[in-house]
Amino acid sequence: MKKLYLHSTAIGVAAMLGAAATTVPAMAQDIGALEARVAELEAEAESSRLSFTTSDDTTIELYGFVRFEAFYDSDFEQGDLSLTGSLNTLTPTTGTFDTSVRVSRIGVRATSETGIGTIVGQLEYDLFGSGGTSELRLRHANVSLGGFTIGQTWTNFMPIGQYPSSADFNGPVGVTFARVPQVRYTGNAGDLTYSVSIEQATGRSDDPNFTAALQYSTDAYTVRIAGIAGTQQDGIGGEDDITGVTLSATAALWDGGHLGATYLNGDGLGFLAIGGGDTLVGGAANNVEGYTIEARHDFGQFNVGAVYGYEEYEAGIAATSINQLETIHVNAFWTPTDNFSVGVEYINGSRTDFTGAELEADRIGASVTFTF
Q: Whole domain around residue 308: which residue ranges?
């Protein structure tokens, strides 16, 4: 990171250069070079205005974005998240418009060069409080050194690098999603990246989760496989082992094109899957299988794509528990500059329970995002 230069200093230097050019014509060429340097420093000040160095070895970076969202539900009210797994007959609507800024977030990243290596610390919050409130909510709090990451961040089981794109914060079903406290080690061997972790279990468990992942990446494609093992409780005395695997891949098969897919299969993973189906049924781990398929094309300032998601649970605690979930996201993004974008999206989601009853919901959403 570059040091933050003050504009007043650059302006003062420019003034002195102007005086020198008046009194010493012979130095005009050198002054021209110095004036060019002043312009460069001013540009650096603009581009680095959110980073500063606290010492010779530590740099602090402030980052985040402000996002305004608007959405229209035509079947069931869903709030500011498209939660297909939560569709129910208690919130019907003939048309509801709403807005939100709760996805907005802010983070701080510190990088320090030390005698034992580069230490990176991250602290990140968003405004997505519980119960629909706008209050600071912790997302990431971790420290990295020499391949180790200690603290809260994305679960190693989740293929965050191959996550489908959506304007909606929740995204399609068929994938996992969690940020958890953990100790992770990541290593590289050429194009191969491997990682293992011990993680705080989400859901109900007195034991940690153990994960391992392997990823192979080239300029044209990426393939990743990850596994998880742990235990879960049902809250009424039942407990069972949980296991699962995710397989994900992305490929650039044509100029500007992108294809991606994820696959999820495991026992007792309802607490990690986007749909949120039952984790244990009758004290036994409930199987869940899901997948997503994404196609996308980048036209430069415009990016368009579609994502299909599917999730199926083997059993349910009740007849009205989730059996199958399907989502379709069709979206387009306009990005005229690197730090500003406008997105529009159509979402269709359906939920089928074990009685065969189906609920279907349509949503149209839009977002404006300024990144800093």
A: 65-100+137-371
Residue 178, burial from CB neighbour count under 10 angstroms (0-12, 13-18, 19+): middle
* Total domain count, the chain: 2
In a domain, 176, yes or no: yes
| Mean pLDDT over each residue of the chain, to the nearest integer | 88
Select from 358, 266, 349 the least CA-distant residue to 314. 266
Upper half-sphere CA count for residue 292 (Cβ side, 13 Å): 30
Domain assignment present for residue 148? The answer is: yes
Q: Which residues have C-beta within 8 Å of that of residue 16, sequence separation ≥ 6?
A: none
Name the helix (H) or strand (E) containing 372.
Answer: none
Are 238 and 280 within 8 A, CB to CB?
yes
- Are 149 and 20 found together in one domain? no
Let me know: does 275 contact 299? Beta carbons within 8 Å: no
Over 90: is that where the pLDDT of 275 sits?
Answer: yes
Residue 57 lies in a domain: no
Supply the pLDDT for residue 57: 85
In a domain, 290, yes or no: yes
Tens-digit pLDDT profile for residues 7-32: 343 334 344 334 334 443 443 344 44
pLDDT tens figures, 188-240 = 999 999 999 999 999 999 999 999 999 999 999 999 999 999 999 999 999 99
